[in-house]
Design a protein that fits this description.
It is a single chain. The chain is α+β, with helices and mostly antiparallel strands. Helix 6 runs antiparallel to helix 8 and helix 12 runs antiparallel to helix 13. Strand 1 and strand 2 form a beta hairpin. The chain is elongated and about 90 Å long. The strands form three sheets. The chain has a six-stranded mixed β-sheet, sandwiched between helices. A two-stranded antiparallel ribbon has the order 4-9. A two-stranded antiparallel ribbon has the order 5-8. The protein starts with 16 loop residues before the first helix and ends in a 14-residue tail after the last helix.
Length: 413
C-alpha cells in the first residue's frame, strides 16, 4: 500500500510554509496605492506578499488611463485620462460607439477624495488583523515562542509599510477668483465611445487637465530607512515561522491561503468600490435614442450635436485629416448653427431631442461627390433613407477599422 506520511503525521514537514507569506504579489499590487490612502494601512495585520510593497521609490502620481481628453470650447487636449476621472466615469465599460453626456458638479460638504472607509479593502485589513490576533492567541496557548515572534514581525511589517507609503491626494485648485465660462470636456475612448462632461472650470482643472499628485507623509530618506527595516523584519519573520511548531505552521499556512484568496477576489472587483468620490455629483443627461449608435460616424455626429462644436474633433485628430472629412465637419457645423440653442426640445419621455441630420449620407456625399464613383451599395436615392440615419451602415462595416476610423482615409494616430 502506498504510504504518504512515513512515520506518521508528526513527520509532516511544512518548512515551506514561509513561502506562502510571500505569494500573491499581483493581487496585492492591484490596489496597493488606494490602500495606502486609507488610515487602515496602519493596522497591524497579516499581509500576503508584503515584499511587493517594499520599494526603493514611490509613484509621484496616479497611473493614467487610455483616452483622449479635449475641451469642446477651449481646444485643450491631453492624450491620457487622469486616474480619478477614470474611476469616476468608468467610461471604458461603455459599449463601442456609444455617446453619453454627464453633468458633473461638487457637493457642498467639500469632502476630500479618499479611499472608501467601508469598502472591500477596509474589510481585507480587518480580516488580516483578525488573523493576526487569532494566531497570537494560538501561539500563546501552544507556548510557541517562534510562532509568536513570526506573527508579531509579519503583522507589524504591514504597519511599517503603511507608515512609509501613506499619502494624501492633492487635486489642483484654481487661484484666480474671476468667473470663467463652463468648460465642457469630451473624452474619446479606444472603443470609439464618447463621453461629454458638462462642468465648470474648477472641476475640469482638477479632474482632467492637471495631473494628480501624491503627497507622502514621510520624505524619501525616511522611506528608504523604513523599507530597509521592513525587509529585515520580513526575513526574520520567515525564519521564525520556519522554526515554529507544526501545529502553528498549519494555522499560519491556512491563514495565508484564506488571505490570498480574499485579495484575489477583491482585486477582481470594480475600482469604484475602493474610492470615496462623494465630493462629486454626477447626473446623466438623457438624449432621445439613448447612448447606442451603430457606427463611428453616428457617434461622432451625436457628440458634435451635444457640444455644438466641431473644433474639438479636428484638434484631437478624432476625425481623419482629409479634405472629405473636413468637408463633412464643415457641413456638421453648419447644421448645428442652423438650430437655436434654446429652448431645448424634448420628446414625450423628457429626453432631449438633437437636430436630425443624415450624417451617413452627408459623409458618403463628401467621400464620393460623383454618384458614379460610389460603391454600388451606396447608390441609393435619398428617398429611401430612414429616419435613423442608418443608410450607410453596410458602408461603415466594410470600411471602418477597429479604432473607428475609415480604412480608405488617413487613420487616427
Amino acid at each position: 500500500m502506498m504510504n504518504f506520511l512515513s512515520g506518521g503525521f508528526s513527520n509532516l514537514q511544512l518548512d515551506i510554509v514561509g513561502f506562502l507569506a510571500i505569494l500573491g504579489e499581483g493581487s496585492v499590487l492591484a490596489n496597493a496605492q488606494v490602500s495606502a490612502l486609507s488610515n487602515f494601512s496602519y493596522l497591524p495585520r497579516l499581509l500576503p506578499a508584503p515584499q511587493a510593497l517594499i520599494k526603493t521609490s514611490r509613484p509621484e502620481r496616479l497611473a493614467p488611463s487610455t483616452g483622449k481628453v479635449v475641451g469642446s470650447k477651449s481646444g485643450g487636449i491631453r492624450h491620457q485620462l487622469n486616474h480619478v476621472a477614470h474611476i469616476l466615469h468608468s467610461g471604458h465599460s461603455l459599449p463601442e460607439y456609444s455617446v453619453r453626456c454627464v453633468r458633473l458638479s461638487k457637493n457642498n460638504d467639500n469632502r476630500p477624495v479618499q479611499a472608501s472607509t467601508s469598502g472591500p479593502l477596509t474589510w481585507l485589513s480587518v480580516l488580516g488583523c483578525a488573523m493576526s490576533i487569532i494566531l497570537v492567541v494560538l501561539s500563546v496557548y501552544y507556548e510557541d515562542g517562534m510562532a509568536l515572534l513570526a506573527i508579531i514581525l509579519l503583522s507589524f511589517l504591514s504597519t511599517i509599510i503603511g507608515v512609509g507609503s501613506k499619502w494624501v491626494l492633492e487635486l489642483p485648485q484654481r487661484k484666480a477668483t474671476r468667473t470663467v465660462p463652463a468648460s465642457d470636456v469630451v473624452i474619446f475612448y479606444p472603443q470609439g465611445a464618447f463621453m461629454v462632461i458638462r462642468c465648470d472650470e474648477d472641476i475640469a482643472r482638477q479632474l482632467y487637465w492637471a495631473p494628480e499628485k501624491c503627497h507622502y507623509m514621510v520624505d524619501v530618506q525616511i522611506y528608504r530607512f523604513i523599507s530597509l527595516t521592513g525587509t529585515i523584519m520580513l526575513m526574520f519573520g520567515v525564519i521564525a515561522l520556519a522554526n515554529a511548531q507544526l501545529t502553528l505552521q498549519i494555522f499560519v499556512g491556512a491563514a495565508y491561503i484564506i488571505l490570498n484568496a480574499a485579495y484575489w477576489l477583491v482585486a477582481a472587483l470594480p475600482p469604484t468600490m475602493h474610492w470615496d468620490l462623494s465630493l462629486y455629483e454626477t447626473r446623466v443627461e438623457r438624449y432621445a435614442g439613448g447612448d447606442h449608435n451603430d457606427n463611428f460616424t453616428q457617434a461622432l455626429w451625436k457628440a458634435i450635436a451635444i457640444t455644438r462644436a466641431t473644433k474639438w474633433a479636428r484638434i484631437a485628430d478624432i476625425a481623419p485629416e482629409t479634405d472629405q472629412w473636413n468637408h463633412w465637419l464643415a457641413k456638421a457645423q453648419a447644421e448645428i448653427d442652423s438650430e437655436p440653442v434654446e429652448p431645448l426640445k424634448r420628446d414625450e419621455n423628457g429626453d432631449i431631442l438633437l437636430p436630425y441630420w443624415n450624417c451617413q449620407k452627408a459623409l458618403s456625399d463628401s467621400l464620393y461627390p460623383d454618384e458614379q464613383e460610389k460603391p454600388r451599395n451606396l447608390r441609393r436615392s435619398s428617398a429611401t433613407l430612414n429616419a435613423t440615419g442608418s443608410l450607410a451602415r453596410d458602408f461603415d462595416e466594410a470600411n471602418v477599422g477597429e479604432d473607428g476610423v475609415y480604412a480608405n482615409t488617413v487613420a487616427e494616430e
